[in-house]
Amino acid sequence: MSIVNRMINLFRRDNVQREIESEITAHIEMRIEDNIAHGMSAGDARRDALVRFGNLAAMRERAVGEDAAVSLEAFGRDLRFALRQLRKAPGFTTAALLTLALAIGANSAVFAAVHAILLKRLPFDEPTRVVHVDNGYAVGLGLNAASKSSEASFNSAVSSLKTIDAAAMYSSSGVNVDWGNGASSRVRITETSARMLDVLGVETQIGRGFEAGEDIPGSDHVVLIGDTIWREIFQPDRHVLGRTMKINGTLFTITGVLPRGVDFPEKTELWTPTIFDEQSSLREGGAFFTQVIARMRRGVTMDQVRAEFRALALQGPTARLREPEMPMLTPISVELTKSIRSSLLMLTGAVSIVLLIACANIACLMLVRAAGRRAEFAVRAALGASQSRLIRQQVVESTLIGLGGGALGIGCAQMVLRLLYVFRPAVLESFTRPAMNLPVITFTALLAVVTGLVFGIAPAWTAAREDPSAALKTGVWRSSASISRMRKMLVAGEIALAFVLLTGVGLLVRTIANMSIVPLGFETQGRLTFSVSLHGAPYAVDGHTTPAVAAFYTRVLSDVDALPGVSAVAAVSNPPLDTRADMLLQVSSDTATAKPTAAAPRFASSGYFGVMGIPIVEGRDFSPQDTGTSGRVVIITRDLAEKLWPDGHAVGHKMGCPWYCKEIPTVVGVVGQNRRYGPRGGAFPEYYMPYTQQDWSYMTFVVQAQGDPIRLAPALRRVMAKIDPTQPAYDLRTMQDRLNKNESLVRFELFVLGVFGVISMVLALIGLHGVASYTVTQRTREIGLRIALGAQRRKIQWAILRENGLLALSGGAVGLLLSLALTKFLSSVLFGVHARDPLTLGLIFVLFVAMALVASFLPARRAASVNPIDALRAE
Fold this sequence. Notes:
Elements: H1 3-9, H2 13-37, H3 42-53, H4 56-65, H5 68-88, H6 90-117, E1 130-134, H7 150-160, E2 164-178, E3 184-192, H8 196-200, E4 206-207, E5 222-225, H9 227-233, E6 244-247, E7 250-257, E8 270-272, E9 291-296, H10 302-313, E10 328-331, H11 332-336, H12 338-372, H13 374-382, H14 387-422, H15 438-464, H16 468-474, H17 481-516, E11 527-533, E12 540-541, E13 544-545, H18 547-561, E14 566-572, E15 585-589, E16 597-604, H19 608-612, E17 616-619, E18 633-637, H20 638-644, E19 655-656, E20 666-671, E21 686-690, E22 698-705, H21 713-723, E23 730-734, H22 735-778, H23 780-788, H24 793-822, H25 838-864, H26 868-874
Parallel strand pairs: 3-8, 5-7, 16-21, 18-20
Antiparallel strand pairs: 1-9, 1-10, 2-3, 2-6, 2-9, 4-7, 5-8, 6-7, 11-22, 11-23, 12-13, 14-22, 15-16, 15-19, 17-20, 18-21
Helix pairs in contact: 2-3, 5-14, 6-12, 6-14, 6-15, 12-15, 12-17, 12-22, 13-16, 14-15, 17-22, 17-24, 17-25, 18-21, 22-24, 22-25, 23-26, 24-25
């Protein structure tokens, strides 16, 4: 039958049904006439015709399958029948819908995060051609200290590469901006080379981008502003072009406005081409930490670009580079999400496991229902219903459950997203907040349909293949061996998958525990911090700091110390748990026995070590007598002292430090080292100089409070505005907040995995409990007979526990093997524990066996208390 005819038949359903019945009747009548013509009686002729024709119901089913109109009617009947069956079993329906709502909702919530972060369409032209280059200096893509013209050296290196169209350097930092209306604020800026927008494939919505040559020092005082700045600060004025703003005290002219959504890299709000100008660079402390991006030529593959970069790096002065120093190219989409990518992929795997466990759980419930409907299926099969028809009806039922669970899952996903946002790690602040938009809802709908098919097909196939005569003989509640085996396999699979999740939870718990006992070397409780970067007159003249810097810091320390609720206050250039990059500079001893080593410079006030709780193990702290006119002094950490003066006596010695030391300083104190990057970060050598002897443009103040430190925030802001309103204080938060942010990702992973792990374990134990309960129900007559014949009730109870214990052991064994294979993906976030830690694996294994015995105890006890007379009478 043609497709057109089938579509036409949709509108003449009653006629089609009559035609099918008429055709069947005509075939039977013709057979009757032939039989009568061969000498049969009328009764025998009809009986023989019906036997030869076959089952009328089956024939009608086949006819239905050949016509779209009748097929739709049959589907409607299956749908109505499935709804009636689900209404008749409210307990099963409710349990299945709630289980699926939770599992699908969790998957939808995680997919929303994946869609918003990993699958987000970047606002660039052909973003697949944009790559991030690490170690670009190996091919000349970096600041060339040996060149008199860094921008010319960089452009020459770019033109020598045949696989890329353009490249740009960039570096991001915070700056003070005076908007010209009496207001100033701290914003994020990116210094870059002139072709940045060409590399990204971005055009301005107003004005123009950087022109060739505007990254040459002296011609680089132009700025591009982001859409948010344009709308919030300039209201949005289309005549903003040509207006000026002061950035770190220097005038810049606005030449363009970038489109909405363009904030590369990491929430940048301003862009300038000052990357090559060491004197006017806006980076704090002049730290030249730069990165490189490039745009590949059309038709060129990533492998070809990598090959050219590698070949060029192996030539000339860089020929002896080690493998970690070779250029590494990464797609820009991967580079921008590297901080959260592995965590999101891990969570995707975790929620997928939860969904599989939920499917297995519901499949077990459907197998129980199938066992209860064996007689129904047997009668329908005996009356001519085909296997495909029986399977279809059950799949329609499972798909309905899946769609219902998906609909509830959308609401559940909204709640999960809110929960995830409450416990979000700090790295998520840089990305768009996930939402239940159209792509996520579409994913949820598809997942609901697929889920319904996954947990519905296997039970439907198993039930439809049963022998009708055997089903009618054994009774309603006597499931076949195949159904029993499948239920046990599904439960064992649930246990194995839940074992994997709980192993991950156990490893993360061990990680958090290990991190909590690591001595940091400093105090975090009761400390409030805020930062200030001083720029422009009177703090800087011709790119150099002035004595006004030290005077500013001294006044801040004095005024803040006078505030009620302040116990002590101090200042340091780089506090622990700071996000600024560290400079490791060469320092040397005044003895010939020690080799020079690398250490990080710090600038601090007197009392800093006491405020931070950093012990002074030798010598003294800075004092008010350490001024610009007194002898230069330095305080070093114990590990640096051990490297420079192995004999253990550093105080009184001279330390050579060609960077930032105007004179050779004398070591006056040794302090304990600290893990400045948190428990995961190891301590490294540091040396501290008093800010009164070395002006430094930025400083972080640490306030030790008598009560809750955050209550001091309004008073601190008033003090800073009174001292100099053009120099905004920023990054005001407690040291404990800094530590929490440092550990937020692993705690977030633990929280989410913990929730999913508990859910998976509960579902697995419910499945195990269901298997035990159903086994007892099926074997009630057998148990009654055994008790009547003298079997001990204790042995019967032990037999049920042993059977389910073996099931848990088998699932746990498979889960153990899976954990050994999969937990290696957690290695990057673990601390102080191996991904295959035998203690964790052993404890999880014992936990599962113990919980399995607990889940089986009540069914086993019920089996042992069976009354033989009641069991036989019920049968």
